[in-house]
């Protein structure tokens, strides 16, 4: 409805424009200025420049303020707060540069519109001014780069040793989650072992993998560093968690990682927002096909105690899928006997050759 | 230099205005009256002016296509719940049960990007104006090789034809995004568009790259070798500097895209694993191991980033020219303008990985590219300040071209500034692939380059067709577009700051992205409105070709060489000898001069009253 009314207003504006210009042509014919090189329309455009600046600038400021709360998703990670401060500081600096240059552009356009009796000022260069407006942006840039670089190295630096580790794997079109179990070590996986049951491609010959468990949603403890190990098993995906300011591609064949520290539990955030249905969400942010827009995973931030309790309840993949485990046993048993047989047989076979 | 070239018509390059006409001139003059068949004159023409018009009109066709596709997906984004049965006659099976097919949505996005970036803003913009203006402004009879120039257009045409036909494939056109990242683009199992659609995309792009290289070699050779007497590099109009550096950029970066496309073709069709590794898809583990999808991104962006400067630099050059002409003032800081173009051209090659901060690339590389990326803001800033200083104390005529040039500067500022956020690796963690990025590049390279294109068409239309475009319709077109573009892209920043991911068919599945349904409707309405506004231009353009007010030789009282040709320059551009050049192209409102402009071909000996102390005849 709003869109429709706006459209209507714009159409009416269009009509007004048309009439104004028609009227202007007619009056200019009567006044004889029609044949002149530079007519009244020059003045009209100059005024419109100013009008555009005032109304456009005002509308922008109003709509920006009006939408400000909506455009700031609540933040729930330590580095997220730091990035948020840096983002808005940068935006303020950019806003100032934007306002100054745009005002100069439109005011100059209006102020220096054509006058028959004036001649433009022949001003071809001034090296001093050039140096000044090269140096000032360079200095501002340098400080922004430095601030950004400091944060970037901190965020992408090694995760603390005691981090909670979990693995998120992207596939068309959902996310799979794996925890390392009690031994805190993720077992070996191999994409060739993937099938409908063994979606991760667990290689259960690796003992580290025996206690690994798979979860339907991500649980992480509040106030504790979390290291996400990220993989993809088909095309590119990207782990995007806007509330935590986390983003990293999931690349087939190249595991990636990202660590962060959540600062608010899901319940705390629900209370803060007054929205009992609130959930932290993980979205896919790299085009991956038909279901790209629906690749969602919920993230639950627990109090550390709740997290431990939840963790203790989980059953390992091997425990839940004894037949998969059995098939590995079988294969490895076969392999062992085969190898033993080969060791015995080889010299004789060689001799016969 | 030029005299050594065997090309007959180029021999004139070294003959100045002051010399008597030679036999050769007579001969050339005579040549003009040869009857050319319609086909050799208008279709397989080797005349740079005809080729420029071919590029322009093909570009306009593609712009309408690209705009229409964007209107389709904006309808989906603005009104995700609406039924689209009414689109069935156009889209056929891509509308299923009143809903747009999500895979076709991705195809729309992909085709919109490909068409706009390559076919409109690369071929349509630099193809049109490099072709049209380089020989006219440097004082040459034609391009260095008219035949290669013709091939350049026809390769582009066939490339477009292949891309156009791919829209009608059973499995749909390419749908992996215009950046065609593998494995999605390599595996038809992943998305149907990666079948025949992707093959045609790659074939089309290979042809397109050939077209670009043929054109680029020609532009560079012409600028270096065929400048008229007196036209030193330091007297070239900024348009030519921009076209020249754009061609250099294209020549150095397009082959890298070609290599990426070639390797992708190998991965797709011949079982290699350049970009593929450890993939389990459609119930099957593939044999490919050891490849890297990130390698493709490096190759792609090694073209992809210079590409945005390939798009924007011609616009910058034309805007500089038009601002100076219509402010009746010399461009401020001519040498700084050239310097910043050179700076941008060099830096354009060392910033590509800022598209890849969060791909898992080594964070140290991220730091390096962040540093280099933010440096490139400095020459861009210098250009903006110089444009503002050009307007200051000018005597401004608001022609349609001038309006679009001012609009260009405004949009370039608005879009360029947010690049400083995105170039910051730390901030890019949140902003990467959100609508903030979409808003940023649509303003700074999309809309700005379009404004440069419009400015160029309005400004040089009289020289192209011998008639003027209607100014009133030009004003209406400008204000509709200017307002429309801001209405579309400013609110898009809000959506982006809130973290809305791009290339989403709908955001309705996420609580995090549920707050801006109204704003998305608004953006969609504004986008469709701005698109419809372009038909004012299209009407004006075609109407004026046939019915426009007749132009004079130099309607804008401009000082560059193209305005010394007849109203409609014929084959060879100047009926007599090519004028020699004595001064820089921006002698506007020079103190002491009789007129408020002095053309480049007027010797200092004729303008004694206005010469600066150091301005003397050099020959």
From TrEMBL, chain B:
Cytochrome oxidase subunit I profile domain span: 38-606
Region (Disordered): 1-33
Superkingdom: Bacteria
This protein's UniProt keywords: Electron transport, Heme, Iron, Membrane, Metal-binding, Respiratory chain, Transmembrane, Transmembrane helix, Transport
InterPro entries membership: Cyt_c_oxase-like_su1_dom (IPR023616), Cyt_c_oxase-like_su1_sf (IPR036927), Cyt_C_Oxase_1 (IPR000883), Cyt_c_Oxase_su1_BS (IPR023615)
Transmembrane parts of this sequence: 55-77, 104-134, 154-181, 201-226, 238-266, 308-324, 336-358, 364-389, 401-423, 435-461, 473-494, 522-543
UniProt cross-references to PROSITE patterns, sorted A to Z: COX1 (PS50855), COX1_CUB (PS00077)
Basic and acidic residues bias: start-end ranges: 20-33
Subcellular location: Membrane
Alphabetical list of Pfam families matching this protein: COX1
Topology versus the membrane: Multi-pass membrane protein
Entry's family note: Belongs to the heme-copper respiratory oxidase family.
Name of the protein described by the UniProt record: Cytochrome-c oxidase
Organism (species): Hymenobacter cavernae
């Amino acid at each position: 409805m709003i869109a429709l009314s706006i459209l209507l207003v714009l159409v009416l504006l269009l009509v007004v424009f048309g009439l104004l210009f028609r009227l202007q042509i007619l009056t200019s014919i009567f006044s004889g200025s029609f044949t002149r090189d530079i007519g009244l329309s020059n003045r009209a455009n100059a005024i419109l420049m100013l009008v555009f600046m005032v109304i456009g600038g005002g509308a922008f400021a109003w709509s920006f303020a009006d939408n400000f709360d909506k455009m700031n998703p609540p933040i729930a990670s330590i580095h997220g707060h730091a990035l948020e401060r840096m983002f808005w500081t940068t935006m303020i600096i950019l806003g100032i540069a934007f306002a100054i240059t745009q005002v100069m552009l439109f005011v100059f356009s209006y102020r220096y519109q054509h006058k028959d009796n004036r001649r433009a000022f022949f001003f071809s260069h001034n090296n001093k001014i050039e140096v000044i407006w090269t140096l000032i942006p360079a200095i501002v840039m340098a400080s922004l780069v430095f601030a950004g670089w400091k944060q970037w190295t901190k965020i992408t630096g090694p995760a603390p040793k005691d981090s909670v580790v979990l693995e998120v794997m992207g596939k068309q079109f959902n996310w799979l989650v794996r925890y390392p179990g009690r031994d805190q070590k993720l077992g070996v996986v191999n994409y060739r072992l993937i099938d409908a049951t063994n979606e991760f491609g667990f290689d259960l010959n690796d003992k580290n993998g025996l206690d690994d468990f798979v979860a339907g949603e991500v649980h992480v403890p509040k106030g504790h560093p979390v290291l996400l190990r990220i993989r993809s098993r088909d095309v590119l995906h990207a782990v995007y968690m806007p509330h935590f300011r986390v983003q990293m591609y999931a690349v087939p064949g190249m595991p990636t990682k990202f660590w962060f520290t959540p600062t608010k539990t899901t319940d705390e955030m629900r209370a803060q927002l007054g929205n009992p249905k609130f959930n932290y969400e993980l979205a896919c942010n790299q085009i991956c096909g038909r279901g790209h827009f629906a690749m969602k995973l919920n993230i639950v931030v627990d109090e550390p105690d709740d997290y431990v309790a939840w963790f203790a309840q989980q059953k390992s993949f091997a425990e839940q899928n004894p037949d998969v485990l059995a098939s590995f046993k079988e294969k490895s048993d076969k392999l062992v006997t085969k190898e033993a047989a080969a060791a015995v047989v080889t010299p004789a076979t060689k001799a016969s050759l | 230099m030029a005299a050594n070239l065997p090309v007959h018509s180029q021999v004139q390059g070294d003959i100045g205005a002051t010399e008597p006409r030679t036999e050769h001139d007579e001969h050339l003059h005579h040549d003009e009256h040869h009857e050319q068949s319609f086909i050799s004159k208008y279709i397989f023409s080797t005349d740079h002016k005809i080729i420029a018009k071919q590029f322009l009109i093909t570009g306009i066709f593609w712009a309408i296509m690209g705009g229409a596709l964007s209107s389709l997906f904006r309808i989906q984004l603005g009104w995700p719940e609406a039924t689209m049965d009414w689109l069935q006659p156009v889209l056929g099976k891509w509308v299923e049960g009143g809903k747009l097919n999500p895979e076709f949505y991705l195809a729309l996005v992909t085709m919109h990007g490909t068409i706009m970036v390559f076919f409109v803003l690369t071929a349509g913009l630099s193809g049109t104006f490099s072709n049209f203006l380089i020989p006219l402004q440097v004082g040459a009879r034609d391009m260095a090789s008219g035949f290669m120039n013709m091939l350049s257009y026809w390769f582009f045409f066939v490339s477009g034809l292949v891309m156009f036909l791919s829209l009608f494939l059973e499995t749909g056109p390419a749908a992996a995004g215009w950046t065609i990242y593998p494995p999605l683009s390599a595996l038809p199992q992943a998305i149907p568009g990666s079948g025949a659609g992707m093959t045609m995309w790659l074939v089309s792009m290979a042809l397109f790259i050939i077209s670009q290289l043929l054109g680029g070699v020609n532009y560079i050779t012409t600028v270096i070798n065929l400048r008229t007497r007196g036209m030193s590099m330091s007297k070239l109009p900024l348009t030519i500097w921009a076209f020249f550096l754009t061609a250099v950029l294209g020549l150095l970066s397009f082959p890298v895209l070609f290599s990426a496309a070639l390797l992708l073709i190998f991965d797709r069709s011949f079982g290699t694993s350049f970009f593929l590794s450890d993939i389990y898809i459609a119930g099957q583990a593939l044999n490919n191991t050891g490849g890297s999808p990130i390698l493709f991104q490096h190759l792609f962006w090694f073209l992809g980033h210079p590409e945005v400067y390939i798009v924007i630099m011609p616009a910058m050059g034309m805007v500089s020219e038009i601002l100076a002409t219509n402010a009746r003032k010399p461009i401020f800081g001519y040498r700084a303008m050239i310097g910043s173009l050179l700076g941008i051209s060099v830096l354009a090659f060392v910033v590509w990985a800022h598209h890849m901060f969060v791909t898992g690339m080594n964070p140290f590389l991220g730091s390096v590219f962040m540093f280099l990326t933010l440096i490139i803001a400095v020459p861009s800033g210098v250009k903006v300040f110089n444009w503002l200083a050009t307007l200051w104390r000018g005597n401004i005529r608001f022609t349609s071209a001038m309006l679009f040039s001012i609009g260009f500067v405004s949009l370039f500022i608005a879009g360029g500034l947010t690049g400083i956020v995105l170039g910051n690796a730390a901030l890019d963690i949140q902003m990467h692939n959100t609508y903030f990025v979409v808003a940023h590049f649509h303003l700074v390279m999309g809309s700005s380059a379009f404004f440069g294109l419009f400015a160029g068409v309005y400004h040089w239309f009289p020289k192209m067709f011998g008639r003027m475009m209607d100014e009133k319709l030009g004003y209406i077109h400008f204000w509709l577009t200017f307002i429309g573009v801001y209405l579309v892209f400013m609110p898009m920043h809000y959506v982006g700051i809130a973290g809305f991911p791009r290339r989403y068919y709908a955001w309705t599945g996420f609580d995090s992205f549920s707050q801006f349904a109204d704003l998305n409707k608004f953006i969609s309405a504004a986008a469709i409105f701005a698109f419809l506004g372009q038909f004012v231009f299209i009407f004006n353009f075609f109407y004026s070709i046939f019915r426009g007010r007749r132009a004079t030789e130099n309607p804008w009282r401009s000082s560059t060489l193209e305005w010394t040709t007849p109203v409609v320059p014929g084959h060879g551009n100047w009926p007599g000898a090519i004028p020699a050049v004595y001064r820089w192209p921006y002698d506007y409102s020079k103190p002491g001069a009789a007129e408020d402009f002095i053309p480049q071909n007027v010797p200092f000996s004729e303008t004694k009253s206005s010469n600066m102390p150091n301005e003397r005849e050099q020959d």
